[in-house]
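Internal tracking record. Fields below are filled automatically when a chain is submitted to the structure queue. Please do not edit lines marked as system-generated. If the sequence contains nonstandard residues, flag them in the REMARKS field before resubmitting.
Queue: standard
Priority: normal
Entity type: single polypeptide chain
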Amino acid sequence: MGEKVLVGMSGGVDSTVAAYLLKETGYTVHGLTLWLWDPKGPYENPCCSIDAASLAARELGIPHEVVQAQEDFRKIVVEPTLSAYRRGLTPNPCTFCNREVRFALLLREAERRGIPWVATGHHARVMRHEKTRLLRGCDPEKDQSYFLFALTQEELSRALFPVGNYTKAEVKKIAEKLGLTAARLRESQDLCFAPEGIPALIPEAEPGPIYDLEGRLLGRHKGLPHYTVGQRHGLGLSSPRPLYVIAIDPERNAVIVGPEEALHSHGLVARDLHWICGEPPGKRFRVEVQVRYRATPVPAEVEIQGTEARVSFTRPVRAVTPGQAAVFYHGAEVLGGGIIARAL
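SYSTEM-GENERATED OUTPUT FOLLOWS
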């Protein structure tokens, strides 16, 4: 009997194939679903399905458990996300959900069961040497290392990402060849707790003014959570040229708009920094920085100034958004990252 591994299973094809690959490698696989939703409600949502996860485990011939974690999820992910939107930020809740909920709770459950390893269906890779390093997944279209930049050495040292060495097409092909139900399921969505959008969860958001870059009043907005930097549609403005959200000003409860060229920034300041290996490569260093999940990485120079990182791009970057994560890469390796405080 091989080493034990606890696999976080959503019912989707990635986590199902991850469990299969580990079993084939010789691990003793235990499936576990962290249920983040109302235990009295339907056991399915855009993120995961208890029924699908249970079925996947039965098809693979592995044990499966469900652990209720909705209170942790509400406190750690949902409430801070809504609070950030109320302050005019556009956070990416998946980054801290992956560390504070999915990995932290999965490790906690593994400890309770005496299981040394945890695994997920993330498209990412780890490399173990003197320290554990986090790498991009092999499929550039599905790489999820951006969401994992805040994981610690202890978490990564016990983590397995079996599908990170495969493309999404290869993962689906494996599932289809095995006749797994997960191969036919719709792919999950990122923002699982707001299927109708964030504004629906903040109905009390106050309308306010829309200004141009010169401070002229152009109209009224519906509430700050309805807007994000780079947005063009839904402004309700008439203009001879397209206008975009350039900034959100929570102190004045205002939305600032302007032409597309005003969206481009030469740098950013990031806070709440985390480094995969425990410390930055130096006080000043060159990296590629990714400012959104789907953004193209851009070469940049980073200077550490106290608890902040000042990032200077080699070319302007569009729609740098406060609240999003700026993740630093050296080639395929994730060095770390932080939360964007402001664009420069």
